[in-house]
């Protein structure tokens, strides 16, 4: 039986992981390879590296980081941030990434999803969506540029379109829940998961063990992503896994 | 020396990284002469079945594999799409012929009670009589990432499987000098690495020096 996945997200700038890190023996601004290996030891099912500067100058630094990680980490990992073309996708996959996540570039040019899926397979194209509830409460809009620009594209319509184009997975971040530590946005996650048949990774808002259970139980999400919670050492991946297993959720 | 067959697609470096990590010598090559000198071969694969067969044909590597693995019985491991290529045919983007080393066909998973693709870690159930049974952890998991799976295989060829919704997904299959994994051993943590190591060091060693 397929397990529910726990995915730590690492924000990378200039080849270094930013945000505070609380692992013993690892500096506050961490080496991505060391951190990836630590998360692997803790039982992470996958990793996501997000290039938060995402300027073209940094591409080579990112490629180098991906190459170094792939030499030492033998669980799957995704690279996102600033991937704009087929050539960018190819570079990351050749460097050893298993998947790429597309966000702004896919909103601007949805055909990139189709081209990427045709050339490299749907399994390596993850659509990342930053979703925010509309003020009138009628649904959610998809934002680009790290949540700065509202495309006024309906999230449910967008994920359906992306699935048709060949996206193999949806990484769904709730902008409303993100940073609140009040739990994942269950309403949004459920709505997106009902709209598509590809796996959905929930992101944004988790602050405690129970939040993982709430979003992974039954048919809500297939995977849960967290960043600061793991970075700051509030919880370890192992603790989350143990808790989920205790609650009867199938986890590795 | 392990020869990783380069036909222009696939996760070649991930496979080589895993080999290097295990202390196994490997090379990535599209050159039949170079590959012929290797003791064992790996056929990796990511993408679509038709593209794989098309690329193998275009480079002449299909004939090389048929000769070297089919006739000369050199041990070969197919991974993911590379494993699917070991079978007779696939229904991905129309009917396509595979290498035909193993009986069975590749068909799409369908159904609304499961997510497709299957992405993630699934329990790997290993045949109790198989040498891998004692090498892996007590409850091993394997990392899968696929939308198609093998059906109509010979039950004797099934080494390990995983259950996904209504489907019994062949996880490891093999016969004589040919073995394949639907999941990615190079991405399946410690147990995955052990499977690669088993292939490199123990699988079908009787035949590996036949030429």
From TrEMBL, chain A:
> Where in the cell is the protein located?
Cytoplasm
Keyword hit for Lyase: yes
The record's listing under Pfam families reads: His_biosynth (PF00977)
Asked if the record carries the keyword Transferase, the reply is no
Q: What GO cellular component term, any one, is given?
A: cytoplasm
Q: Where is the active site?
A: 11, 130
Top-level class of the enzyme under EC nomenclature: lyase
- Which molecular function term from Gene Ontology is one that the record holds? imidazoleglycerol-phosphate synthase activity
Gene3D superfamilies xrefs: Aldolase class I
* Family in the record: Belongs to the HisA/HisF family.
Any idea what job this protein has? IGPS catalyzes the conversion of PRFAR and glutamine to IGP, AICAR and glutamate. The HisF subunit catalyzes the cyclization activity that produces IGP and AICAR from PRFAR using the ammonia provided by the HisH subunit.
Subunit-structure text: Heterodimer of HisH and HisF.
Spell out the protein name for this chain: Imidazole glycerol phosphate synthase subunit HisF
Organism lineage reads as: Bacteria, Bacillati, Bacillota, Erysipelotrichia, Erysipelotrichales
Q: Which gene encodes it?
A: hisF
From TrEMBL, chain B:
What CDD domains does the entry give?
A: GATase1_IGP_Synthase (cd01748)
Q: Keyword annotations for this protein?
A: Amino-acid biosynthesis, Cytoplasm, Glutamine amidotransferase, Histidine biosynthesis, Hydrolase, Lyase
| Location relative to the cell | Cytoplasm
Pathway linked to the protein? Amino-acid biosynthesis; L-histidine biosynthesis; L-histidine from 5-phospho-alpha-D-ribose 1-diphosphate: step 5/9
Give the UniProt entry's GO cellular component terms: cytoplasm
Domain Glutamine amidotransferase: from-to ranges: 4-199
Superkingdom classification of source: Bacteria
Q: What is its EC number?
A: 4.3.2.10, 3.5.1.2
Record keywords: Lyase included? yes
Q: Which reaction does it catalyse?
A: L-glutamine + H2O = L-glutamate + NH4(+); 5-[(5-phospho-1-deoxy-D-ribulos-1-ylimino)methylamino]-1-(5-phospho-beta-D-ribosyl)imidazole-4-carboxamide + L-glutamine = D-erythro-1-(imidazol-4-yl)glycerol 3-phosphate + 5-amino-1-(5-phospho-beta-D-ribosyl)imidazole-4-carboxamide + L-glutamate + H(+)
The protein's role, per its UniProt record: IGPS catalyzes the conversion of PRFAR and glutamine to IGP, AICAR and glutamate. The HisH subunit catalyzes the hydrolysis of glutamine to glutamate and ammonia as part of the synthesis of IGP and AICAR. The resulting ammonia molecule is channeled to the active site of HisF.
* Quaternary structure, from the entry: Heterodimer of HisH and HisF.
The record's annotation in PANTHER family points to: IMIDAZOLE GLYCEROL PHOSPHATE SYNTHASE SUBUNIT HISH
Q: By what name is this protein known?
A: Imidazole glycerol phosphate synthase subunit HisH
- GN (gene name): hisH
